[in-house]
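Q: what sequence does this backbone want?
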């Protein structure tokens, strides 16, 4: 029976298919949390990188997976990363080198130590095969992804960059679930403020509240930008054209009133149509506190007094309360849900 390059079986389930063809299964390693890296097959997608928690989501008979950023559909096996391909190639190369060495030993009739002595007496020749170590199969060097979201439909636990729109398993729109998860992070930080006040003092706790407010404003800006970008892409604009339109927005979404004008101009709907005047005014007032916090160490300046229309005295410190931030998060989520429902209604609905 002729010797073959690869031994059948083993941990990689090697099979000889005939005509010098083989099949081999290489399992991609997961990280310490059991998450498997995935990458969008569409090379133009950015960032196109995610991780999924193995054992969650669709675990049987999954025919199509989706990119959470661009919703590109493809066979689940096509979402491998470049590092996973490199890892598989290293394993195949190592197996091939081991097989080539084994076949050479057999062809030259070398002993198990890789040696053979020819002749004897005054003239003898010794052949020695010095095996060359195959390349080490280093685990894939994957990126760290910090934002986790669980699909409310198929229960896939996935990690993405930024704010992803689609579930990587079932393809459902999970944008609002992701936004809610991000807001919950800020709420968890607020929950820890009393402990930090007790352990570290009032100044640290005040700084924590200021950071939570800045995070709330940043989330407000990021969520609106993500929805506007998606709206522009569905309005037949190219990616480049959409980016140009978003650049024109600048920092408008950091300000409630400027955001309201921009949304009306671009999307054609009123941002606070389903929100009371009291809540809209409250959100605007609280968000204005970010200016002195970010640019003036929290000290009230003339710009803040004029924009917030407040009676606070110049030179005093802006006060931010836990209750204000919690209410701002609730109002913001209400605004996001209402805007999303009007601009991106479910497929069964009509505008």
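A:
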């Amino acid at each position: 029976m002729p010797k073959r390059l690869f031994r059948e079986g083993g941990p990689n389930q090697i099979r000889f298919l005939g005509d010098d063809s083989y099949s081999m299964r290489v399992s991609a390693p997961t990280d310490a949390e059991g998450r498997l890296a995935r990458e969008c097959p569409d090379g133009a997608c950015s960032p196109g990188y995610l991780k999924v928690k193995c054992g969650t989501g669709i675990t049987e008979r999954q025919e199509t997976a989706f990119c959470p950023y661009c919703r590109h559909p493809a066979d689940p096996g096509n979402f491998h990363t470049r590092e996973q391909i490199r890892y598989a190639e290293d394993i195949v190369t190592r197996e091939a080198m081991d097989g080539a060495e084994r076949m050479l030993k057999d062809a030259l009739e070398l002993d198990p130590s890789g040696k053979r002595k020819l002749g004897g007496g005054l003239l003898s020749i010794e052949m020695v095969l010095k095996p060359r170590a195959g390349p080490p199969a280093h685990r894939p060097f994957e990126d760290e992804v910090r934002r986790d979201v669980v699909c409310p439909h198929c229960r896939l636990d996935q990690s993405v960059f930024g704010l992803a729109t689609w579930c990587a398993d079932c393809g459902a729109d999970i944008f609002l679930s992701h936004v809610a998860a991000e807001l919950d992070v800020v709420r968890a930080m607020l929950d820890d403020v009393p402990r930090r006040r007790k352990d570290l003092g009032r100044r640290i706790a005040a700084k924590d509240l200021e950071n939570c407010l800045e995070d709330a404003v940043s989330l407000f800006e990021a969520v609106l930008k993500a929805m506007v970008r998606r709206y522009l892409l569905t309005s037949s604009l190219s990616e480049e054209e959409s980016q140009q339109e978003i650049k024109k927005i600048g920092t408008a979404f950091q300000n409630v009133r400027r955001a309201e004008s921009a949304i009306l101009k671009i999307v054609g709907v009123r941002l606070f149509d389903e929100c009371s005047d009291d809540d809209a005014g409250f959100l605007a007032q609280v968000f204005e506190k970010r200016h002195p916090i970010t640019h003036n160490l929290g000290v009230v300046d003339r710009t803040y007094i004029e924009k917030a229309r407040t009676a606070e005295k110049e030179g005093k410190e802006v006060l931010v309360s836990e209750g204000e931030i919690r209410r701002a998060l609730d109002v913001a989520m209400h605004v996001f849900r209402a805007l999303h429902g009007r601009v991106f209604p479910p497929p069964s609905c009509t505008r």
